[in-house]
Amino acid sequence: MILLDVQMPELDGFETASLIKQRERTKHIPIIFVTAISKDEQQVFRGYSAGAVDYVFKPFNPDVLRSKVSVFIELHEKSEELQRQAELLKEQELAELRRESEERYRFLAESQPDQIWTATPNGELDYVNQRAVDYFETSFTEMVEAGWTNVVHPEDLPRRLERWQRSLDTGQPYENELRLRRADGSYRWHLTRALPMRDRRGSVVKWFGSNTDIDDRKRAEEAQRFLVEAGATLGGSLDYRSTLASVAKMAVPRIADWSRVDMLEQGRLRTLAVQHVDPAKIEFALELARRYPEDPDARRGPPNVLRTGESELVPEITEDRLAELAVDDFHLGLVRELGFQSYMCVPLVARGRVIGVISFVSAESGRRYGPDDLALAEELARRAATAVENAQLYREVEERAQAARVLETVGDGVFLVDGEGIVRLWNRAAEALTGLRRDDVVGRSAEDVLPVWDHLAVRVPVAGAPGPASAETLPLELAGRERWLSISGVGFDEGTVYAFRDITEERALERIRQDLVATVSHELRTPLAAIYGSALTLARDDLELEDALHDKLMEVIVEESSRLADIVNDLLVASQLDAGRLEVHIERCDARALTEAVIAAARTHLPEGVTVELDVGTNDLPPVAADEGQLRQVLGNLIDNAVKYSPDGGDVRIRLERSDEYVRFRVSDEGLGIPPAEHGRIFEKFYRLDPHMARGIGGTGLGLYISRELVRRVKGRIWVEPNDGQGSVFYVEIPAAAESEAGRKLRIEAGAGS
Ligand code: ADP
What's the CA dihedral at 594, 595, 601, 605 to 10 degrees? Predict the structure, then answer.
């Protein structure tokens, strides 16, 4: 209350009042004018219009004034009270409104299929909806107090903390994908999001969040990705063991904590691969599988799947379930000890047959398998089986191709005649050996195309059971020449496989060998008989021998002994040559001196009518590089033959001439000669033109063979040509000794000697 005088110096009461009324802070303060002078109506009216609540004349009764003032104070207090009441009412209304809206959003939150939550600006959880409480099977309070940390998959936790903190710091919306552990221990993928609610000034007052279950989508995606990766791995492997081992590996930890592949081998399941999240347990698991193979009659697990070809899924291994499955005590203990939670077994089916079983077990991860997991496992098994099939097919094709390649490259002719008598296979060697082309033979009746088929079909023993069939030797007329084939056959489901080889050469050799035995024994017997006869005669007491006869007999003994020695020596040299044991000492030899010595030796026992002449074309014959003793043997051989095969006499001429880097020895005779067709063969071991000695000329058939081998060893050449008119000419070329090197060698040797 203001009690205001009207008459005042400078600024009167009315002006003061209007100033007071103008000021915001004072305009509601009641004013009572108190005056002694301005009592006319005019003045009173001015006073009221200036905002006075009363106009009191002096002198005034203080009680009246007091009671007037107290009325105004009371009034003021009343109106204050009223205002307060109005404000309270307004607040109550607001609170009601707020509660209503909160309830509305809670209701909204509760009606959502997702988990809905709110958090304080510093990130503390302060509300979760019933859905979340149900999912985690906890209480609202517990949930709100504990927050998310304990239910987020440990692998996803760091990412969650990092992102959530970033959103709290920046006020940016939060979004993440993580696995939340359900009350049953399994984890499901959720998409979690939160938006900040801000006040008028823009600061965050609350976070509104939601967790949406995206497990199905996530798993489908993951399954798809997994299958794609698995496909790549499986497609790249052609060895079925490594293929399946890689399946076991791939499954852990993405679909299982344990995985195992069992394959059907010899009628039993054998564990081929095991994988475990904990590598230390792999050995243990393998050891278990080795020591306690699955009971083939078991009513659950791999044996059951193998028998029925149906997958097995146990979402949750409970005691009841175990009892129901009639698991034996050992496996029961195992399941408990290893903490098996859930498992599935799927068959591996290749070409319509169950060839194995893949098992997936969940333990540590607490995962529960459901139909989706089973579908994934089945798909994986299907792909693995396809890979195994491919690997098997590949191997078969490869084996077949290999077999075909082998058949193509073997030296034996191989052909196959099926049950209908049709030729189904005819290899390259068969073509080469018979001259019959594959196109002309394959697909046609053996009877029509194989010249000796009648004979074959009847005579060739066909082995039924495995084991070698004895071979039959048959002559076959081919391209006008007689060939000998050794043929054997083996019968099998689809017909008979025959293998044959050309043994014409072997047969010929065999005949030669037989001839040789005859010849050599004859060759040995003749001198032996002569020696024996001579010795017997000499030893007789009752005969008085003339000196001439005595000498003659002694000469026979000496000569025939030397012949015997020669034959034995030839046999020895030939066998050394065969064994590669003959040593060759190459040195400088004087060709002319050597030839003269050989001729001189030959001349000592020339038959009648045969002469041996040396004809040296030139005076500057170089020395030859040869083993002197061996070269002597070669020349001796040629000259002996020339003499021996001139039974009707004739001139044997030996010529020495130079031919480039060689010295050529030419030995010609006018004897029996050699048909050109045999020019090659006479150098073969034991080969003789006249094995039965129709002309009475003996020999072992070794001389030319030995000569050829010796000449070859000093890098020389030997051959035969017909002599003009009659007889043969044998040529031997021996390399001339290199002057410088030979000279040096000689000097060194001379030096070493002195
Ligand atoms: P052999 O001990 O039979 O003489 P060789 O190896 O020296 O053995 O000769 C092989 C065959 O070559 C002889 O059996 C003979 O038929 C033939 N032959 C070798 N030299 C002559 C020749 N100068 N004239 C005719 N035939 C020869």
Answer: 170
